[in-house]
Amino acid sequence: MAAGEHPRVASQDLEQLSHRHESGVRELAAEHLEAPVRMLRRLARDPAWQVRRAVASNPRTPGGVLDRLSRDPQPDVRRRVGGNPSCPVPVQRRIAHSPDWEDRGWVADNKDADPQVLVEMLRDTDPYVLKLVLSNPRTPASAVAMLQLVRGHDPTADL
Fold this sequence. Notes:
The chain folds into two domains: 1-87, Leucine-rich Repeat Variant (Alpha Horseshoe); 88-159, no CATH class. The relative contact order is 0.08. The protein is built from eleven helices and no strands. It is elongated and about 60 Å long. It is mainly α.
């Protein structure tokens, strides 16, 4: 088990690791579930996209940082924001309207996604995204039933 993954690593040790030259070490520090917020804010501007991706995945990352990372030029960073359980609803909504189906898929598959955002995503034309929305336990059953009425059949039968 790497130090950045170990549950009992002290925050000062994570801080030290986050300043290392090796991006892989900074990435481990950024993904640690006890990572200090101050460190995550700093690592969100790291030149290595893998480090920013780890920050985008970390549930401790503040909403404002996730908002900024949702506009990152690296697709893997943006997508991890959509899958983050702490992703703010306005950010989920913006990603849900991304032209990139993979970006939308991360929100659709987020088990902590806002139910209203998932309802809005039932209009998505991409079959993969729609399948993820329909299989998400946070998608209200009433919305799925309404979609079934509108389409005249089970919407999952098309997938």
